[in-house]
Amino acid sequence: MSSRGLYIRRRISNAMAITFAAAATLLGLFFLVWILWLTLVNGISALHGSLFTRITAYGPEGGLANAIVGSLMMDLIALLICTPIGVMAGTWLAEYARLTRLGTVIRFLNDILLSAPSIVLGLFVYMVIVLPMSNLTQGAVSFSGFAGGVALALIGLPVIVRTTDEMLQLVPGTLREAALSLGVPQWKLTVQILLRAASSGIVTGVLLALARLAGETAPLLFTAFGNNFMSVDPLDKMASVPVAIYQYTNDPDPALHAIAWAGALVVTLFVLALSLLTRLFVSRKKASYE
Amino acid sequence: MQLTHARQFARDSERRSHADARHDRIFRRLLKFCALLVLVALLGAALSTLWGGREVLFGQGLHFLTSDAWNPVKDDYGALAPIFGTVVTSLIAIVLSVPVSFGVAMFLTEIAPNWMRGPVSSAIELLAGIPSIIYGMWGLFVFVPFMSGIEPVLSDTLGKIPLIGRLFQGPPIGLGLLTAGIVLAVMILPFITSVMREVFQTVPTRLKESAYALGSTRWEVLWDIVLPYTRSAVIGGIILGLGRALGETMAVTFVLGNSYNITSSLLMPGTSISSSIANEFNEAVGLHRSALIALGFLLFVVTFIVLLIARLMLRQLAKREGK
To answer: Dihedral (C-alpha) A216, A221, A224, A228: value to the nearest 10 degrees?
Structure first.
């Protein structure tokens, strides 16, 4: 083949590749805009004050008040469980087990837990909390907001472990050496100096975890179950926005679909606002390190 | 007098350093205990689902794994149809989203002007932030009607080709394996993209610059320099996406059609492990419930292995970088 022909062929394949890459990017953005736009349009048209004031028991004339309260309750329970455990586990990985074999294994397994199927985590909590509680109380307590919170905590835990670990590893070693040379015990160094230095990163991790678990549906189906009435008792069945969306979407009634869209809008806005907030945190953090 | 003071001081400081050492030990054990909880969570998920599904897994053994029957009335359960649906939808998702992710990652690392990279990659990552239930709703209310318009066209064109034509014949109802696969593809797109983008950025600039200096085009740099350098991590990223797709529940439950059959056509409704569990668990009792938990166990084991492979491949690149 002449070198001229080869040249042209290379130019053409390059142009095709660039066109393909640009088209792929546009396709990805197209889906993003499509999904967000529909959620926005359908959600806003169904957004009434009653969404926040009436409970799901009213059906098509109702709102999602109990589901919103339930979601907030369970998200709070989940964070209360997974934040301390996650921060401590992440601290252990970064400060005590950075290069040990057990540390490597746990870091590795944590990454797997991060993408484990959430529905199986729901089954796990069903087996170890819902069933035993139901057996112990002769069925008086079975599905509960507490169980839902634990299931969500399992979703959030690996996120917090990972960010804590990473953020502590970013703290310069000189800080540790300076404190240790003054005779500060290691626990004090960790709690009062390192965790403080990494605090904005850890807050980012908690927000990220919240953003992930707030939209979860699958682990709640057989742990918190759902509830058509307002309940703030963590030992009672508890409604949540994602599960309410799931139930309403499965229903043939278009009026319920509208409420589901409004709920979808609320959840999506909440989750996306959280992830934007974390982005802000992270970019500020990066700026301060450079 | 002064001597006793000195002694007192020495005793105090010794006591304090003992106390410090003790606190350090307690502190370290507490932290280690929390870290071990991660292990407990994974082991617990595996063991508890194994225990919950024991009646089916041990009672019926191979029959459960090889039968395609799913009959709650006769209490006869086989996992083949859900496994089939899970595998097929995940494969469709991978086949569709890998080239697109590759394109996006190429665009973001080699083509886009600098000012565009940040916003576009944030936008793609936003896709990952959208809760899966929203994908499910969008899939059911918007994408299924859209697909039922597309499917007759698919049947008339691709369906006419011998051999692969059978994949595209069936009722154009919109629900089905293909639709679920496409929704999954959109869902895992940001995950695969972000892994690819990150590993593409680890390629040393001087490697790329050398290739450019020899007159390579952008495509050649990407295909012949960047991709070989990052191969294991790219494959790891793809497998990571596969792991996500296998375990996804909410995005596929609405659009699969929930019917237990194994067909040659991608347009037919089907079911998947996760959507079977989500649909039936709360109404199931006895052996039915046990069968669903056993399905959960299978799903967990399979995704665990898939994710393990993915992470191992991703680690290879990090190791080479000396991290």
So the answer is: 100
The CATH homologous superfamily for domain A51-289 is MetI-like (1.10.3720.10)
Question: Using the beta-carbon criterion (under 8 Å), do B107 and A127 form an inter-chain contact?
Answer: no
- For residue A54, the distance in angstroms to the closest alpha carbon of chain B comes to 22
Q: Is B71 helix (H, G, I), strand (E, B) or coil?
A: strand
CA A18 from centre of chain: 35
- How distant is the Cα of B142 from the closest Cα of chain A, in angstroms? 9
Tell me the shortest Cα–Cα distance from B224 to chain A, in angstroms.
13
Whether residue B300 contacts residue B248, with contact meaning beta carbons closer than 8 Å, is answered with no
Assess contact for A219 and A143: CB atoms under 8 A. no
Whether A117 and B305 have beta carbons less than 8 Å apart is answered as no
pLDDT at residue A59 greater than cutoff 80? yes
Band of pLDDT at residue B10, cut at 50, 70 and 90: confident
Contact by Cβ (8 Å): B34, A92: yes
Model confidence pLDDT, tens digit, residues B250-289: 989 999 988 888 888 888 889 999 999 999 998 888 899 9
For the stretch B181-222, pLDDT in tens is 999 999 999 999 999 999 999 899 999 999 999 999 999 999
Contact flag B282-A222 (C-beta cutoff 8 Å): yes
Token digits of residue A215: 């939209």
User: Pick the residue with more confidence: B252 or B168?
Assistant: B252
Q: Could you give the C-alpha distances from B113 to A33, B108, B110, B118, B126, in angstroms and in order?
A: 22, 8, 9, 10, 20
Tokens of A58: 């009213």
Give which of B57, B130, B184 to mutate to test A binding, by max A Cβ within 10 Å.
B130
Q: What is the ipTM of this complex?
A: 0.90
Q: Which of B21, B124, B129 sits opposite A211 (nearest CB)?
A: B129
- Chain B residue with minimum CA distance to A254: B141
Q: What is the dotted CATH code of the domain comprising B62-320?
A: 1.10.3720.10
Q: How far apart are alpha carbons B251 and B213 in whole angstroms? A: 46
Residue B212 sits at the vertex; the CA angle it makes with B209 and B214, to the nearest 5 degrees, is 115
For residue A288, the model assigns a pLDDT of 42
Domain layout of chain A by residue ranges: 1-45, 51-289
Report in angstroms the alpha-carbon separations of A128 from A121, A125, A133, B276: 11, 5, 9, 21
CA–CA separation, B220 and A44 (whole Å): 47
Residue A289: its pLDDT value, please? Answer: 40
CA angle A122, B53, A112 (to 5 degrees): 45
Q: Residue A111: its chain B contacts at CB < 8 A?
A: 307, 311
Q: Tell whether the model's pLDDT for residue A28 goes beyond 60.
A: yes
Top pLDDT among B52 and B158 is at B52
**In chain B, domain spans:** 2-52, 62-320
pLDDT of residue A290: 33
Q: Collect all residues of chain A within an 8 Å Cβ-Cβ radius of residue B101.
A: 24
Which residues 6+ apart lie within 8 Å of A192 measured at CB?
A: none
What's the mean pLDDT when you consider all of chain A?
91
Distance between CA atoms of residues A108 and A165, nearest Å: 12
